[in-house]
Design brief:
Strand content: 5-15%
Strand order of the largest sheet: 5-6-7
Number of helices: 13
Shape: globular
Helix content: 40-55%
Oligomer: single chain
Largest sheet: 3 strands, parallel
Distance between the termini: 9 Å
Structural class: alpha/beta
Number of strands: 9
Radius of gyration: 21 Å
Length: about 325
């Protein structure tokens, strides 16, 4: 229901989406929907106030909408289309979050939310932390506060894959180094240097210590790249088969060599396609700790296989 709320354009659209929700199957495997139960009107009445975005403010009194919270490791990871479109009517620039990296949050924001909401993003900010890069370079959690430029640069291969993913959607981007007190000057300098050598636009983001003042350079860069021409495109055509769409996400976004679909999942795919659910976007439930489906594999894994264990429809 939260995902439907986030992907609805208004109350009527919410009701129409809710009607399609599959809640069970008959003994001969035909879907039973909320419309069959004749409760879509009642459900919509319960949710009518929840569909209104919540207006809050930052410590520096910037208006912010907080509306919905589907996590990108299991759902589509974005706030509501209603909040985003409302904000676009009220401000010159709207910043929205798509959590859990470019393999999950960004892919789902671009392939699901932008497709269903008819949104075209102007630019992407790829947020990187020294701490996360050191982790992807092999540093254990208890040693992350110690300076380790070598490990951080080793971990940059993970960041590079996220950059490539964003570039594959044909969008302008900037890498934002989200700075914290334990980051050393040598580490920050090395990361900036790595980005410059590779030709990746980069800015320091010192909001943690300085608030808005520490974000001005990044904000100016975002304004600049928003003016660049972009030929935004989706990762896959929604009319492809379910297996082709799975294949596209796993290979081009995660970097997998192969995709292994369990027999029971293959059966479900066949059944869902026969029921007319072929032309829906794909929303993967995957660990956010690795580009692969194994949370213990850090950095930028190569030659790995993604294992698809189950497939289900979220028809609403």
């Amino acid at each position: 229901i939260m995902a439907i709320l986030c992907l609805s354009n208004d109350l009527k659209d919410f009701e129409n989406k809710v009607k399609k929700c599959v809640v069970a199957y008959t003994y001969d495997n035909k879907p039973v929907t909320i419309e069959d139960l004749q409760i879509s009107g009642a459900l919509s009445v319960v949710m009518k106030d929840a569909l209104k975005p919540n207006l809050v403010q930052t410590l520096e009194h910037t208006p912010v909408f907080i509306h919905g919270g589907p996590f990108a490791n299991i759902a589509h990871g974005c706030n509501s289309i209603i909040a985003t479109k409302t904000a676009l009517k009220l401000a010159d620039y709207v910043v929205t979050e798509a959590g859990f990296g470019a393999d999950l949050g960004a892919e789902k924001f671009l392939d699901i939310k932008c497709r269903l909401g008819n949104l075209k993003p102007s630019a992407v900010v790829i947020v990187a932390t020294i701490r996360a890069l050191k982790m992807h370079g092999g540093v254990t959690q208890e040693n992350l506060n110690e300076e380790n430029v070598e490990a951080m640069l080793q971990g940059c291969q993970n960041l590079e894959k996220h950059i490539e993913n964003v570039k594959s959607f044909n969008l302008p981007y900037v890498v934002a180094i989200n700075k914290f007190s334990k980051d050393t000057k040598a580490e920050v300098y090395a990361l900036i240097n790595w980005c410059n050598e590779k030709g990746y636009p980069v800015e320091e983001a010192d909001g943690w210590a300085q608030g808005g003042k520490g974000m001005i350079n990044l904000a100016n860069k975002v304004v600049e790249i928003c003016e660049e021409e972009n030929n935004f495109k989706f990762n896959y055509d929604v009319n492809l088969s379910l297996e082709e769409k799975l294949d596209s996400i796993c290979k081009s976004i995660y970097g997998a060599k192969d995709v292994e679909i369990e027999d029971s999942a293959k059966e479900k795919i066949k059944r869902l396609e026969s029921l007319g659910y072929k032309n829906l976007p794909i929303c993967m439930a995957k660990t956010p700790l690795s580009l692969s489906d194994d949370p213990s594999i850090i950095g930028r894994p190569k030659d790995f296989t993604i294992h698809i264990k189950d497939v289900k429809v979220s028809a609403g």
